[in-house]
Amino acid sequence: MRVRLLPGAGLVIRTGPLLAVCADGGAQTDALVALVREIAAEAGDAAGSVLIARLAGRLGSDGPDCAVAALGENPAVLVRGGAVAVADARQGTVELRGPILQFRTIDGPLSTLRLSLPGSGMPDPRTSLEAGVVSGAGLEAQLEQPVEPARPEAPASRAMVPARRPDRAVPFEAVILLPGYAPDPGPAPEPPQPATQALVEGVLCRDDHFNDPDQRYCQICGISMAQLTQVSRLGPRPPLGVLLLDDGSTLRLDTDYVVGRDPDVDDDVAAQRANPMRITGPASGVSRRHVRVRLEGWHVAVVDLNSANGTLLHRPGAARPEQLTPGVPAVITPGTRIDLGPRWFRYESHRNT
């Protein structure tokens, strides 16, 4: 793999399976470089998606612009701020942009990768970064394995299809087909009924978007609602955001979730009053049914379900995590991270808080 530099202000990092670029933000950038090196040193046989998830869990949403890629099995990329990541892979071209911290696993192998900061120049063909930290505003990596287009499967040969031979032991039965005389198949099965959408008290903006009455701006079009006569009414609750798991998977937050190693054992999941959010892979310290994410009106709450090892909340801006009391709901805001032993997920939303 050859890594060429993009000229500009910032730092370019290559260490182990990680490639990164970050804006020069003094002490915060020094801490970011140290964290990237630490994650790379602990990589072992971990897949790229796992390394990026570890980095995202410790990086936080505030700080210098940065883009990071983890190569190898299940490659993944992460961006924050004005940084951009573009990868050419089996699934096509994947592009990831800030400004919020986000990451994604890529269906590899990769053929090219570009990480860049605002104002980066064209790649310098004379450069090739083997390892270390150098000045630059981005990188362009050409990987050794090119992406081959998927080849259509060849049709099965006729010679491979066994000939259908009649069974001479079965007596011959003649059947006459007449139009309109087909046997009655019986009543058609009823289509499955869609789940009932929760109704909540809300208000409409000038363009008829349904909103939380406590919001100052419409969450769809952004118009100010201060000048409107807010008459509340019942309406279907829109999704309140997403749950982002540490392996990169995302679930839309439009219903309750039970989270754990085996959430299907929960009575509410069995009765379809909640959806399961199953923790797969390394799950030491995660109970079968560990925590419930509950939607209460326009609010999101989490409840520890008497888990064996407890649940921690990392609220945005808080100096230290908060231990949940089993069975007691705790309302959370966007950006809150929920730790279940070594695993975590985060509540994200565009809604104002």
Automatic annotation (TrEMBL):
Region (Disordered) residue spans: 143-163
SUPFAM superfamilies: SMAD/FHA domain
Domain FHA per the UniProt entry, residue ranges: 257-314
Keyword Phosphoprotein: yes
Protein's name in the database: FHA domain-containing protein
Lineage: Bacteria, Bacillati, Actinomycetota, Actinomycetes, Micromonosporales
UniProt keyword Electron transport present: no
CDD domains linked: FHA
Pfam families the record matches: FHA
Organism field: Actinoplanes palleronii
Source organism superkingdom: Bacteria
Keywords carried by this UniProt record: Phosphoprotein
Family annotation (PROSITE patterns): FHA_DOMAIN
